[in-house]
Amino acid sequence: MRKRPLSLIQDDLVEYEEAMERMARLVTERQEDRRADTLWLLSHPRVYTIGKRTPAEHLPDPSRGIPVVSTGRGGQLTYHGPGQLVGYLIVKLGEDEGIVDYVREVELRLVDALAALGLPAERRDTPPGSELLTGVWTVNTGRKIASIGMRQSRGVTSHGFALNVDGDLEPWRWAVPCGMPDVEMTSTANEGLTASMEEVRAAVAKAFEAA
């Protein structure tokens, strides 16, 4: 992984639409070299977000009362809620680097962060013809603990990852996450890790700043 110092922004709970507006401003600033590469750590109130390829049959029943918002990132349906650590990455890619390269880097940094907390995790290669296995999975139980969906515009990345820490996992079961009907979502707490949100935040920030 290349050396890439990051400027860190930290917030608690931010409405999704408000976050998208601010992220767009951060991307413009990075495209114009008015800001350094940035990692923004935050959480959202309960919301489902969907990518461009999310089928209607993967959406939750509207009676659940959780809003569904279309977004410009890659990937399919993701749930956000309190107890989940979201990281938006506004990074200028190198000339020899594409968004797929950077997504792999994000996976590996999250694996490093979870290892530092004592939870073995891994990224997975996608078999030919299968739904993309982008994200991070627990080694011992084979569950998905982090989702990743990103895009790039004029060489700068946006969106990022969602790492489940200690939030409610039930909303994941009301829809089809990540385009995979059989996936089982988990969290650090569900895997028996006692680390607090603050400790997970610190480990994630350190992993992204370590290079």
Helix/strand layout:
Layout: E1 7-13, H1 16-31, E2 38-43, E3 47-50, E4 68-70, E5 78-80, E6 84-90, H2 99-117, E7 121-122, E8 136-138, E9 144-153, E10 156-164, H3 197-209
Parallel strand pairs: 1-2, 3-4
Antiparallel strand pairs: 2-6, 3-5, 6-10, 7-8, 8-9, 9-10
Helix pairs in contact: 2-3
Explain what you see.
This protein is an alpha+beta fold. It is built from 3 helices and 10 strands. The chain has helices spanning 16-31, 99-117, 197-209, and strands at 7-13, 38-43, 47-50, 68-70, 78-80, 84-90, 121-122, 136-138, 144-153, 156-164. The strands form 2 sheets. A 7-stranded mixed β-sheet has the order 1-2-6-10-9-8-7, sandwiched between helices. The longest helix is centred in the middle third of the chain and has 19 residues, at 99-117. The radius of gyration is 16 Å and the shape is globular. The N and C termini lie close together (7 Å).
Q: What structural category arises from helix and sheet content?
A: alpha+beta
Q: Over the alpha carbons, how many angstroms does the gyration radius reach?
A: 16 Å
Measured between the Cα atoms of the first and last residue, the distance is 7 Å
Strand content: 25-35%
What's the helix count?
A: 3
Helix and strand string, N-terminal first?
Answer: EHEEEEEHEEEEH
Can you give the helix content as a percent range? 10-25%
**What's the average pLDDT?**
92
Q: Got a strand count?
A: 10
- Principal-axis shape: globular
| Strand arrangement, major sheet | 1-2-6-10-9-8-7
> What does the main sheet amount to?
7 strands, mixed
Q: Point out poorly predicted stretches.
A: none
